């Protein structure tokens, strides 16, 4: 039996939000077989994690699909841990409604230039030539309410709570993507792992992380995992937290599957065709 002092310590970066906390509940509480691995959980917003991936600072990290295109030489995709918008996803909200066709002329708050939400917005607008300001994701609604921007690009739980804040939906990019692609999910985030760790270690990491996700999704464990995740729910009640977790932790999270991979390939191909990423991307998954 592996003893704690012989475990291999790995750094694991993920966002301080309910869906990531739900996924890694069993791992954080040491409720599953970790196959001799120990994890230092590093909680930072996705833009910061994207930037750290550029510098290869973490062994394993949540990352925007957009940012993944910039670290292909350093990291491989894990088949588990993806966040997909399956007919829902990031949305533009404002104080009052207006025609989405006016968005190119509006000042938009965005959560980061390397986020997949921002890339999806550029694909939607078919241009990168619009006025935007980068604001931390959890401050965007306040910026819209205060009139510092015309509208904001929401990710995370703001997609469920914006109406409570007196804001209105202008366009849901997940719904738009689902309709225009014939039912593909909008790829938002994934987990990546340093390729230099070696094939055997990458396979072990994948098994352990999938085991953690599977544990939380088990009906017997789900409520405890949701309650744990609410520490990062920014005031969400349990019912809403469970709804949000269900949106982004599901079968596509256990494995991309054919639909998930097709969604990523279509997303990045369109971004390349429009000149938003310089080269075509060949996805590299851990086996």
Structure, described:
It is built from 13 helices and eleven strands. It has helices spanning 18-23, 25-28, 46-54, 65-68, 116-125, 140-145, 158-161, 173-180, 199-217, 219-229, 238-248, 251-254, 257-273, and strands at residues 8-14, 37-43, 60-64, 75-77, 83-85, 91-94, 108-110, 132-134, 151-154, 168-172, 186-194. The strands form two sheets. Strands 1, 2, 3, 4, 5 and 11 form a six-stranded mixed β-sheet that branches. Strand 7, helix 5 (116-125) and strand 8 form a beta-alpha-beta unit. It is globular, with a radius of gyration of 19 Å.
Provide the succession of SSEs: EHHEHEHEEEEHEHEHEHEHHHHH
Q: What's the total count of β strands?
A: 11
CATH C-level of the largest domain? Alpha Beta
- Specify the CATH homologous superfamily of the largest domain: Periplasmic binding protein-like II
Q: How many structural domains can be distinguished in the coordinates?
A: 2
């Amino acid at each position: 039996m592996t003893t704690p002092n012989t475990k291999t310590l790995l750094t694991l970066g993920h966002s301080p939000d309910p869906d990531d906390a739900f996924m890694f509940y069993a791992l954080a509480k040491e409720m599953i077989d970790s196959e001799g691995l120990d994890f230092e959980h590093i909680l930072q917003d996705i833009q910061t994690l994207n930037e750290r991936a550029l510098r290869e600072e973490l062994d394993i990290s949540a990352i925007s699909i957009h940012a993944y295109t910039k670290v292909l030489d350093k990291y491989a995709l894990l088949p588990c841990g993806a966040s997909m918008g399956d007919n829902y996803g990031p949305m533009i909200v404002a104080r009052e409604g207006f025609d989405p066709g006016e968005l190119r002329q509006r000042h938009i708050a965005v959560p980061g230039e390397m986020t997949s939400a921002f890339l999806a917005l550029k694909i939607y607008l078919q241009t990168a030539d619009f006025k935007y300001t980068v604001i931390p994701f959890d401050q965007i609604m306040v910026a819209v309410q205060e009139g510092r921007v015309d509208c904001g690009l929401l990710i995370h739980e703001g997609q469920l709570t914006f109406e409570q804040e007196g804001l209105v939906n202008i366009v849901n990019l997940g719904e738009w993507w689902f309709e225009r692609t014939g039912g593909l999910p909008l790829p938002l985030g994934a987990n990546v792992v340093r390729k230099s760790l070696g094939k055997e270690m990458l396979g072990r990491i994948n098994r352990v992380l999938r085991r953690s996700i599977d544990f939380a999704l088990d009906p017997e464990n789900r409520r405890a995992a949701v309650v744990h995740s609410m520490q990062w729910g920014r005031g969400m009640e349990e019912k809403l937290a469970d709804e949000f977790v269900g949106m982004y932790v599901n079968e596509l999270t256990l494995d991309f599957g054919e639909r998930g991979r097709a969604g990523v390939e279509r997303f990045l191909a369109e971004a390349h065709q429009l000149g938003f990423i310089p080269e075509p991307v060949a996805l590299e998954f851990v086996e």
